Sequence to fold (270 residues):
Amino acid sequence: MSFSYREVLPDVFHIEDAMGVCMTLLAGRREAWLLDSGYGLEDVAAFSASLTDKPVRLILTHGHYDHILGASWFDGASLFEEDFGTAEEHGGESWRRRALDAAAEKGIAAEAVPYLAAELPAWNKLEEKTLSLGGLTVQVIRCPGHTPGSAVLFVPERELLLTGDNWNPCTWVFFPEALPVRAYLRNMREILGLPFRRVLCSHSGGLHERRELEDFLGGLTEERIRSAEPVDTGAWLGIRTARVEPAAGMCLVFDADKAYKEQVNDAKGK
Ligand SMILES: [Zn+2]
Fold:
C-alpha cells in the first residue's frame, strides 16, 4: 500500500494517501479514532489497523469526497448530521469519477469498477462531546465553515487542534455548501479560546504552530475581505471566487457573491 505516515506526537499518526490527502490516527490505550478516510483508493482500514492493536473507529470531519470515500473500507462512520446531505452527494458516482480522473492525472493506477461499486456505510450522527480513548482525550466541536457540519477536534494531552479542512494553509470556503466568509471567521475565531499549541490539517503533512492559525485569522480583516482579488478556480464554474492572502504563504478562497450578500445583511442588522 502506498500510504505514508509520521508519528508527529506520541500516539498521534498523521497519514497521507497516494493522492496527497491526510488523515490522523489517534491511538488511545482502549480505542483508536481515525479522523477522515481519504479518497479510499486503497484499504485505509487495514492500514490504520496496522498502526494500533485497538479497535479503530472512523470519524469524518466533513462530507467531502476526499475525506469520506475511504469509509467504504469501514463498517461505520460518524459525522455531524448537517453534512449528511453533502456526504450523500459526494459518495455518488460523479464524485468517484472525479477522484479516478485525479488519480489518472497523478499517474496512480486504480481499479475503476470496484471503486465505483464500493458501498459506503450508513452515516452515524456525530455528537459534540468529550471522550477518553485511554491516555488521549478528544473534544469534538461543531464548527460550521468549510461545510455546515464541519468538525474540529481538540486533544488536550497533546495541546493539539485538528482542523480538517476548516483550516489549511490554503483554505477553501467557496463550495455551494460553505458558509459565508464572515460566519466562517466568527466560528474559527471562537476556536482560538482553546488552549492548543499545535495544529494538524488535512492538506498538509506536518504539525503547524498555533501562531500560524492566529496569523491567518488575524490577517483576515474586513478591509482585506472587501478588497479580495477575483480568482479563477477553473473546475468550479458558476461560483465567483475571490482570494485573500492573510499572512505570508497562506490564502483563503471564498465565494464573493455570498460574501457580498452577507455584508449587505450584516449592515441591515439581520
Ligand atoms: Zn473539504
About this structure: The pocket of zinc ion is lined by residues 62, 64, 146, 165 (CB under 6 Å). DSSP finds nine helices and 17 strands in the chain. The chain has one domain: 4-267.
